Amino acid sequence: MSDEFVLAARSLRKYFPTGASRMLQRPTDLVQAVDDVSFGLRRGTTLAVVGESGCGKTTLGRLLARLIEPTSGSVTLEGVDVTAASPRELLALRRDIQLVFQDPYACLNPRHSIGQSIGTPIRIQKTLSRSAEKERVRELMQLVGLNPEHYNRFPHEFSGGQRQRAGIARALALQPKVIIADEPVSALDVSIQSQILNLMEDLQASMGLSYVFIAHDLSVVRHIADQVAVMYLGKIVEIGEPAAVYERTAHPYTKALLSAVPVADPRRAAGRQRIVLTGDVPSPVNPPSGCRFRTRCPKADARCATEEPVLLARPGDSDTEHRVACHFPD
Amino acid sequence: MTLLSVQDLHVTFGTADGAVRAVQGVSFDVAAGETVAIVGESGSGKSVTANSLLRLNFGADVRIDGRILLDGRDVLAMSEDEVRSVRGRDVAMIFQDPLTALNPFYTVGYQIAEAFAIHHPGTSKKELREIALDSLQKVGIPEPTKRIDQYPHEFSGGMRQRIVIAIALVNSPKLLIADEPTTALDVTVQAQILELIAQMQAEHGSAVILITHDLGVVAEITERVMVMYAGRVVESASVADAFSTPTHPYTRGLLKSVKSLDTERHERLESIPGIPPSLINLPSGCPFHPRCGFAETLAGRCEREVPELRLVGASRSACHLPEDRLLGLLGGLS
Lengths: 330, 334
Ligand SMILES: Nc1ncnc2c1ncn2[C@@H]1O[C@H](COP(=O)(O)OP(=O)(O)OP(=O)(O)O)[C@@H](O)[C@H]1O
Ligand code: SF4
Ligand code: SF4
Ligand SMILES: [Mg+2]
Known about the structure:
The complex is a heterodimer. Chain A is an alpha/beta fold. Chain A has 12 helices and 12 strands. In chain A, helix 4 (114-125) crosses helix 5 (130-143). Chain B is of the alpha/beta class. Chain B has 13 helices and 12 strands. At the A-B interface, helix 6, helix 7, helix 8, helix 9 and helix 10 of A face helix 7, helix 8, helix 9, helix 10 and helix 11 of B. Adenosine-5'-triphosphate (ATP) binds next to strand 1, strand 2 and helix 1 of chain B.
């Protein structure tokens, strides 16, 4: 991986100890939240990370923003190893990678005015005077479609969509290079979701931002992603351009995810064949041997229980960026 | 045959900030065995409407007017005892979060049996256990003989929602109200639960009112849809019509905002501008007018006059636009 990537992850792992193993130190009791994840994010593009609850997507986002330390592996920002950064370097790196959360309340202090909250990163980095900060916050509010006159209002006086705009303004305050957005529209109403997605696209075009966009279903990211990674139990099972992942789907899990998305079209809903997976996602503490998806996979056979599939391009596929971890890809 | 007839329902909550007009003049019928969806954004009054059907929002400062006829009997005029005998027997409800519906201190088997025993006193312990086992089996809980004696926390989210469905259906209710039953679940599990609801409905012949903000879910399992906005029904139509020829600008906006799997990369999404109104300070006239791109073509009528539901094609729509324009809404803003 080279300089074309603004952000890159290499063999990233994060294992959390469970309650029992903290005392007994048994390696088998680790939650394998993120296990051997690698990818590269090109400048000015969007990588969507999609998966169900517990697949490790939020942990991955936090690793990328270096809110938590990886167990092993590395994250590089423009070639600089984030994971090996000194505390001083880290302050600068934090400026360049910002987070947007599902619940904007996570970054908006309920007792601070919205303007104060948006300006917090500027104050932490001490880059601007108090009055210049206010000016900058007003600009940011304008940029994300908030009325700058509402600077002194409190978070509870805004709707969910407006609070998410404030969360985005706050993330933009230090002119970051990369934004990690963890389910930024999941808590919003449909009509408002589109407003926020359009806003994010506009900001990307005008400011050259790169996004890691985390989502739990494939429909939301279809038209904003340049690359889609599907995760299952801590691992990327399929990655590629949307056209590849959606139209030349190779992994049985991606297929099931796609077919589970309710289609807002009664004729197509009636006509299609649906793959309904049995059971729930197994616990990441003791994931199934071999392929982690095998307990729910309609195609699983003996080899799947013993041999872990590696993320590779399909043999003979000219699109080598489209990779899949399955012994029997479609 | 009409099972439920809601007539001119009004629900208003008194709050410190003023009166919240959560539901205003909602009327609809549900036939026996029919599946109806109520869709709308957060705060549009879907849950308040549903809760009223079982009188679940008779809190401190609430005013309810109108009639809710269940098999011809007015739920709003019943005594507390009568309502209790309806709840769980004639009408059952499933909520978004299965954990709040289950008691953490009792086994799931006990809770299913109890739901049956309330309405069938004198059933023997042995029979009750049989019924609970049978219910668990039907909703697809693997190894029911082992699972019956476990507690809610020992089940995953999807399994818990299955148990809630088992409890709701144990008395074969005439009406099942499901308020966002899959919103808290993963997509692959959501697909399982929707299929289960459809299958159970076919088996028990219950009518279903499905409340959701997800138009995709509507298209999957229901026949008829009511769209709510700011406490009113703005459109009521068959699912096929609502999707192919929406007859209200708000329904059109919702359809256009749906992120479909086949949108092109970087295609611009249409969105409804602005935000839903405050129910304390509702806009004059049509509650949708501050966000409606069609309002200015009607010379101020939208700001003055509340549109009533009327027949447009085969649907009912509460909009002042002339019929031919409403039938051509998907064509655009012209
Ligand atoms: N007990 C109450 N006291 C005061 N206001 C209430 C009460 N219950 C509901 N409301 C208000 O009534 C309005 C309609 O609420 P309702 O819960 O029916 O919306 P909804 O359509 O179900 O929304 P959601 O999609 O968020 O579930 C909201 O503004 C809500 O805040
Ligand atoms: S490796 Fe086997 S179990 Fe895993 S996805 Fe492929 S076919 Fe299914
Ligand atoms: S009545 Fe007017 S404002 Fe309301 S939906 Fe129709 S055109 Fe729009
Ligand atoms: Mg609700």
